[in-house]
Amino acid sequence: MAGLLPPFVDHHVHLQLIDVPQLLAGGLGGVVDLGGAPPAVASLAAAADAAGLPYVRHAGAFLAAPGGYPSARPWCPDGAVREIRSPADAAEAVAEQVVSGATVVKVTLNTDAGPVPDPSTLAGVVTAAERHGVPVAAHVEGTGMTELAVEVGIHALAHTPWTEPLDASLVQSAVDQGQRWVTTLDIHRDSGSGQQTAVTNLGVFHAAGGRALYGTDLGNGDLPLGVNPREIAAMIRAGLDRETILDALTDPWPLTLHPDGMATRIPIDEPPREADVPMWFASAQAVRQR
Question: How many distinct structural domains can be found in the chain?
Fold first, then answer.
């Protein structure tokens, strides 16, 4: 792993809730914003690029059922939720996000917090997104929501499922579809059994051949503004080895190529001990080559 690596990416952040200029110092070369007010996020993305900060990909607004998550959350910025009521409405909503610059679409499936779109409306989101050449990521929370996401062909989960243990056959179906899971394990460190459920589910997903994406839900609570060693440690507990973690950190999803100029350097070629792996990844430095 010596030399320059592809840029490390946090695949789940909320730019409106964090101090964007600090990200570069924390070792991140890129971020994926998974929900915010489209004009504000597009402006933050443009400003980050102009300032030589980590590159930004974004989903635009959260697509949600009327009254659905996260519309009632106090942290949710004004204009960050786009309600969808039908397959036709879903298609319009997807087009709006793409016009705003989105390269991924985010839909929320949280039965613990309110209504969720019906299967035909969800299928409309997926069909419209595929027509525009962008993937769909889903927030899944509550009984049966991962199953629903698999049923309608959602391309990625914005969080490793943590509210219920998943049956191995369902996980295998997700893997067979090519579904990616963003890790976000550390946000559950104070939630009792939630983190262990997520770690176990990610372990089953990884063992079945699933592709994980490093992500932290940055902006959600007290998280480091950069590569999070606690997230890496939790990934290790799920059974991911160093090469798999590197792949999760450097995956250019939701596109196929990183932009020119961004790279990552780790000062020490190899960690002294296995126990040092999380801090070794967290010592990464994001660099621009232009």
Answer: 1
